[in-house]
């Protein structure tokens, strides 16, 4: 327990100095003990996300997506390989570089790349990611996030050509994920992850550079009063969904209180709020990427320790087609859907 700026703060699980439990403490032998290789991988992954957090918060990040230079500057254009790159591309390069340096990754599959990247023959893991979800909201300072999933490399595919084994490793069933998570870049930087046993959130302490365990074994409230969906698409929804939303926002379901709408249009932010406050988060259109978004987030949701509901609980086990296959997703608690 410690005092910072007049506020009493402390991790909800001891283990490190001052009673705090850092992410690296938690995944190490004193905590979850996920194995040395995965500890090394998470060390590099958290470093990449700290760099992205700093980049997102930088007053100069808007210049990365403009070819005219920084606002107020000379206005000269830059072309060719030195041209500024959008934040999602830069974030992708940051993560790829960190994973290459870890020496623990065989395949890197990103929403920003046309095809998975084969990194090393002896890397034990496969990492899939959406490097910066919601990057179009950056200029409005709306929360963004990184989504990731981790698989074991399929050694039985090692004899195949590089491109083929890279693709097949990336298209593993979501049920085979060994870890997944997201990092929310907002008023706080929060890394939420599951290693197969519970879902846990770690908050970045900027004074030390550590992710501190602040929400161990998250349990979503069994009853929420918030639904998160793009209401502008109401008339595109199936009749059953329109009827459900009309019912809960009028308080005419089994649960008499009226639901409120909260929709940020940033997947990680909407997902995280639902995790904390309860309710339901939906994307009724075939809009979410199965490999990079739907599978990792559904893995997290399935580890909450309550009776949770996805559109189909088993849907994240479907894997074949392509890395860019789009899916609709519904995340909530079973009690919510009986409203």
Automatic annotation (TrEMBL):
GO cellular component assignments? cytosol
- Fructose-1-6-bisphosphatase class I N-terminal domain boundaries: 34-216
> What's one GO MF term for it?
fructose 1,6-bisphosphate 1-phosphatase activity
Q: Does this UniProt record's set of keywords contain Hydrolase?
A: yes
Q: Which InterPro entries match?
A: FBPase_C_dom (IPR044015), FBPase_class-1 (IPR000146), FBPase_N (IPR033391), FBPtase (IPR028343)
Q: Which reaction does it catalyse?
A: beta-D-fructose 1,6-bisphosphate + H2O = beta-D-fructose 6-phosphate + phosphate
Give one GO biological process term: fructose 6-phosphate metabolic process
UniProtKB keywords: Carbohydrate metabolism, Hydrolase
Q: Where does the record place the Fructose-1-6-bisphosphatase class 1 C-terminal domain?
A: 220-305
A Pfam family in this protein? FBPase_C
PANTHER family from the UniProt entry: FRUCTOSE-1,6-BISPHOSPHATASE-RELATED, FRUCTOSE-BISPHOSPHATASE
Q: Which family does it belong to?
A: Belongs to the FBPase class 1 family.
Its name, as the record gives it, is fructose-bisphosphatase
């Amino acid at each position: 327990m410690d005092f910072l700026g007049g506020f009493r703060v402390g991790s909800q699980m001891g283990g490190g100095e001052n009673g705090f439990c850092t992410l690296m403490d938690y995944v190490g032998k004193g905590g979850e003990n996920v194995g040395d290789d995965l500890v090394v991988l998470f060390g590099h992954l958290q470093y990449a996300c700290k760099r992205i957090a700093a980049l997102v918060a930088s007053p100069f990040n808007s210049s990365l997506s403009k070819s005219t230079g920084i606002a107020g500057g000379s206005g000269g254009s830059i072309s060719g390989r030195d041209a500024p790159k959008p934040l999602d591309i830069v974030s992708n390069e940051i993560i790829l570089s960190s994973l290459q340096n870890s020496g623990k990754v065989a395949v890197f599959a990103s929403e920003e790349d046309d095809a998975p990247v084969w990194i090393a023959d002896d890397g034990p893991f496969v990492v899939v990611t959406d490097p910066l979800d919601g990057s179009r909201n950056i200029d409005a300072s709306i929360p963004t996030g990184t989504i990731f999933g981790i698989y074991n490399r399929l050694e039985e595919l090692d004899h195949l050509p590089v491109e083929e084994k890279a693709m097949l490793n990336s298209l593993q069933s979501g049920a085979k994920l060994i870890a997944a998570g997201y990092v929310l870049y907002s008023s706080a930087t929060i890394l939420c992850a599951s290693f197969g046993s519970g879902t846990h959130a770690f908050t970045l302490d900027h004074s030390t550079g550590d992710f501190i365990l602040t929400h161990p074994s998250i349990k979503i409230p069994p009853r929420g009063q918030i639904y998160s969906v793009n209401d502008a698409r109401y008339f595109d929804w199936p009749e059953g969904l329109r009827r459900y939303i009309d019912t809960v926002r009028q308080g005419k379901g089994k649960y008499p209180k009226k639901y409120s709408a909260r929709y940020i249009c940033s997947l990680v932010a909407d997902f995280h709020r639902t995790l904390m406050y309860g309710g339901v988060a939906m994307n009724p259109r075939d809009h979410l990427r199965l490999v990079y978004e739907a599978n990792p987030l559904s893995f997290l949701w399935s580890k909450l320790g309550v009776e949770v509901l996805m559109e189909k609980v088993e849907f994240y086990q479907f894997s074949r087609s392509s890395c860019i296959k789009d899916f609709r997703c519904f995340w909530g608690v079973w009690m919510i859907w009986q409203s």
